[in-house]
Every structure is written in C-alpha cells, then in structure tokens.
Amino acid sequence: MRWGLIGASTIAEQFMIGAIRATGGTVAGVVSTTEARAADFARAQGIPAHGTALSLLLEDPTIGAVYISSTNEKHHAQALAAIRAGKHVLCEKPLAMTVAEASEMVRAADAAGLTFATNHHLRCSGSHRAIRDLIARGRIGRVLSLRLFHAVHLPATLQGWRIKDASAGGGVIPDITVHDADVARFLLGEDPLTVVAQMSASGMGQGVEDSAMSVWTMPSGAMVQSHESFTHPFAGSGLEVHGTEGSIFAKGVMTQRPVGEIELVTGQGREAVPYPQHDLYAQGLTDFLAATEGRGQPAATGWDGVAALAVALAVRTAAQTGTRQTVDIPRAA
Ligand code: NDP
C-alpha cells in the first residue's frame, strides 16, 4: 500500500511511519498546513513528496490510503475529501468534533465502498486481546465491573492544543476517554447505556478539562468506572475486570507499547497470563490492509470510532450538566 499522510504529527513520526514501513507499506507523501513544516518533516522522515494541498495526495492515483493525524477539528473535512477521491482512510481518534460529523465520514466511506478505520490502538494489543479472550471463555464468570485507570502525565512536548484549544478538540475527554470507551466496548462486547461524570482542570488544562472520572451502566448490568487525566505523573495505567468467578488485574496496559502484566485470580489461585507482544500500530495496519483487500474488518471500524466518540461526548455533557446522560450511538444504515 502507498500511503499519504495528512498531518505532520508526533504520532506519525513516533509510531505510524515505522508501522507503515514495517507492514510493507510506502509513505508516498505528507501534507501539512505549513510548507516549511511539511518540508522539514518529509526530509527528516525520508518521505519523497510534501506540500500544503491535499490534492498532492488525493490526485495521486498510486496512493491507495491516507492516514489522518491532524488536530481533531480537521479530520472531518480531510476524511470527506479523501473519500471523494476514492482513498481508503485510517483516521485518528476522536474521529471528529461531533458524533454527527463522525457518522457522516463513516457513512460516506460505506457508500463509496472504501475501508474506513479508527486508530484505536489498544484493542490491537496482545494484552487487551488476551483479556477479552479470558472474559469470552468465561474464566471470570459473569462480568460485574470494569475499572479503567488511564491517568497519565502529558509530556511537555504534547502540552499544546490538547491542553488549551477547545476549537482544535483539546481536553482529556476527546483525547483519552474516547480510548477508554473503545476498550470497554471491545472487552465487554456491549455499549454503555448511560453515564454520570465529573471533570476538572487540575493544573494543566486551560479552558479545557485535564481530568475526568465517570461511571457507565452497561446493558448486562455490569458497571464501568473510568479515570483519565493529563496531570498524574506516578499513577500508572491499567484495568481490572471483576466477575462472579474471578478477577483480571492488568497493570501498565493502557499504553502505546506492548508492555504490562496481566494476572488472573480465581478460586484456583493466581496465575500470570502471557500474551503476544507485537507492535500495536502494526497490528492495526495489518488488519486495515486485509480489510482493503476484502478480508475482514479493520480492528476498530469507523462505526467503532463513532461509538467511542458518542460515549466520550456523553461523559463530557454529563460532567458539564451534572446529569445522567443517555448514550446515543448512531449505527450503520
Ligand atoms: P501533534 O500536535 O504532534 O500534531 C497534530 C498537528 O499539529 C500536526 O498535524 C501539525 O499540523 C501540527 N503540529 C505538530 N507539531 C507542530 C509544531 N511543532 N509546530 C506547529 N504545528 C505542529 O499531535 P499528535 O500527534 O499527538 O496527535 C495528532 C492526532 O493523533 C490527534 O487526533 C490525536 O488525538 C491522535 N493521537 C492518537 C494516538 C493513538 O494512539 N491512536 C496517540 C496520539 C495522538 P499540520 O501538519 O497538519 O499542519
């Protein structure tokens, strides 16, 4: 696959360019809003073409797919343009600023017969797949609760639009709660019905929230508790799933790298759970490529991205209003 990059971003530089190349792809060009930045990025990353106009990528018939990792408010227009040009789309989360815009993007790709995926990397990890497998095989019985610990310390290099620009999609809820929503849906195989939440700006956020806690009700009766923050240097990440016959404790697994430990505790005792430690983003790309060739679905589809955004935005509204919110998730036609 020949890829076009939309956005000269940190995530592209740190993870996605390497993952594209590791999965046999070619990064054919990069588009940024600034010519100098596009040129610097292309030079540093060994990308042959660069520019500021999307047409550089969209009018190139040899480019089959675009990876969109611009700031969040740009995803909608860029994805629609790429779909109009017949390109498959791998789009960063949150897909858009609103659920309506996100749905429009995915519906357009469906109508055009193109693959559209959301880069929710956590469900691509061996750890999360192993946890989901334990739950599905009934190792912990009926799930009673899921607790998600995703309070991190945002590195200084990322303390830009994320902590101060609501119009670019800043705030911890569109940034991290959206991932946790995807994790809950992936592990439990069901969508939250309602949410209650609180949020705050605890030292980093300027005009946007930098911390959130929420509780979600699931159709099965399971309860989900979710904590996200940009301001916690030593909290560590993880998740716990508690069931009638056992509990799963996963430490350090809410990350971009294949790390962390999983322990299963049942009446038979405690056991460490091994899992494959592959690159999360390369796995997502492998699943995406197969989907473009008619083999299966991307790891996280466009509709998964829409659903995660619907949950995250319900959390924000719940926190803003102090009221329980119903999660309204649009579906494929
Ligand atoms: P960055 O801030 O690094 O990049 C976002 C955009 O900001 C770039 O496309 C670029 O705009 C502009 N930009 C970046 N660096 C500079 C700079 N030094 N000077 C001026 N402009 C700059 O963000 P991230 O890479 O962290 O995030 C990009 C997207 O990816 C977001 O949607 C985010 O939510 C998502 N993301 C997803 C992750 C995942 O694991 N799935 C992890 C991290 C981020 P342009 O080139 O378009 O002009």
Task: Please specify the SSE layout and strand pairing.
Blueprint: E1 2-6, H1 10-22, E2 26-31, H2 35-45, E3 49-51, H3 55-58, E4 65-68, H4 75-84, E5 88-91, H5 99-112, E6 116-118, H6 126-136, E7 143-151, H7 161-164, H8 172-188, E8 194-200, E9 211-217, E10 223-229, E11 238-243, E12 246-251, E13 261-266, E14 269-272, H9 280-292, H10 302-321, E15 325-326
Parallel strand pairs: 1-2, 1-4, 2-3, 4-5, 5-6, 7-10
Antiparallel strand pairs: 7-11, 8-9, 8-15, 9-10, 11-12, 12-13, 13-14
Helix pairs in contact: 4-5, 5-10, 6-8, 8-10
The structure holds NADPH dihydro-nicotinamide-adenine-dinucleotide phosphate.
Helix fraction bin: 25-40%
Number of domains: 2
CATH A-level architecture of the largest domain: 2-Layer Sandwich
Give the strand tally. Answer: 15
Q: Which fold name is given in CATH as the topology of the largest domain?
A: Dihydrodipicolinate Reductase, domain 2
Q: Could you give the distance between the termini? A: 29 Å
Identify the CATH class of the largest domain: Alpha Beta
Write down the overall mean pLDDT. Answer: 98
The biggest beta sheet is recorded as: 9 strands, mixed
Bound molecules: NADPH dihydro-nicotinamide-adenine-dinucleotide phosphate
Taking Cα atoms only, what radius of gyration do you get, to the nearest Å? 19 Å
The arrangement of helices and strands along the chain is EHEHEHEHEHEHEHHEEEEEEEHHE
> How is the largest sheet built, in terms of strand order?
14-13-12-11-7-10-9-8-15
Proportion of beta-strand residues: 15-25%
Q: Please report the number of helical segments.
A: 10
Structural class assignment: alpha/beta
Shape assignment: globular
The low-confidence parts are: none
